[in-house]
Specification:
By secondary structure, the chain is an alpha/beta fold. The chain has five helices and six strands. The strands form two sheets. It has a four-stranded parallel sheet with strand order 2-1-3-4, sandwiched between helices.
């Protein structure tokens, strides 16, 4: 009778010998499809280069592309849970902005992929697995402040001490 350790090792070897399953995701708030089609084509080409099996593509459109509801993202995660079963699975996006431009929302959505046993990967080879180079937003320093960050938020960050991503202690002056 095989031991638990032996069966775990066999499952791990099977996962490495099976092609990675790629779940392509994108979002588009407008009715325009040219950019969307180009981004999907880039992802498919990258998956082919990596010799990954593309399971399908999920696209949130309109208002769903701008909120954290994301019915197609959640559907993709459900498909990952159902089809992953011991295989390496990736959510493939053209770039990190395809998940969200909001870092906290992006982290929440990518966490769902992680809980399903997958990692998010960009078509330029960055990932959020914490291994190798180009680790993506989960493990790299936060991006510089830019659009979407108001002046008050910048001022709080300058006056406070960052104790963790998204957490800043600000001294209360009386």
């Amino acid at each position: 009778m095989p031991t638990s350790q032996g069966s775990d090792q066999m499952a791990e070897e099977a996962a490495h010998s099976s092609p990675t399953l790629a779940f392509i995701y994108d979002r588009e708030a407008t009715s325009q499809t040219d950019s969307l089609n180009r981004r999907i084509a880039v992802c498919r080409a990258y998956a082919a280069t990596m010799k990954w099996n593309v399971v399908g593509q999920w696209v949130d459109r309109g208002d769903a592309a701008l909120t954290d509801r994301r019915p197609h993202w959640r559907g993709m995660v459900a498909a990952m849970e159902a089809q992953g079963q011991g295989r390496r699975i990736v959510c493939l996006v053209a770039d990190w902005g395809r998940i969200s431009h909001n870092d906290e929302e992006s982290a929440r959505l990518r966490r769902l992929v992680g809980l399903a046993g997958g990692v998010c990967v960009t078509a330029s080879g960055e990932d959020d697995s914490g291994e190798g180079v180009g680790r993506g937003r989960l493990t790299s320093p936060p991006p510089p402040y830019g659009r979407g960050h108001d002046d008050a938020g910048k001022l709080l960050r300058r006056r406070g001490q960052v104790v963790a991503p998204g957490w800043t202690l600000v001294r209360h002056e009386s």
